[in-house]
Design brief:
- By secondary structure, this protein is mainly β.
- The protein is about 0% helix and about 45% strand.
- The chain has a domain of about 50 residues: N-terminal domain of TfIIb.
- The chain contains no helices and five strands.
- Strand 1 and strand 2 form a beta hairpin.
- This is DUF7838 domain-containing protein.
- InterPro entries: DUF7838.
- Pfam families: DUF7838.
Length: about 80
Amino acid sequence: MVPSSDDGTTTDAGISIFNRPRAQLPHMAMELEHYCPDCDADRTFYRAASTTVHLGEKVKWHCPECDYGFVRISDNGTAVDSSA
């Protein structure tokens, strides 16, 4: 008999539905050169957070000098930038 669980996390084959290999992600930059409107200069922004949403990868960037931040969502070369 094949093991299963009552909470639905195990399939009939006894394999957990959460036991899938993670997708290989491209190298993620931790820094970004970008214009900061609060500092009125080009600054090195640092990645504060990132997540994958239905539109692509959503990344929050922050300026360490003034804490100005913006969000960039990109998918296959197309980008939406909240700082523009």
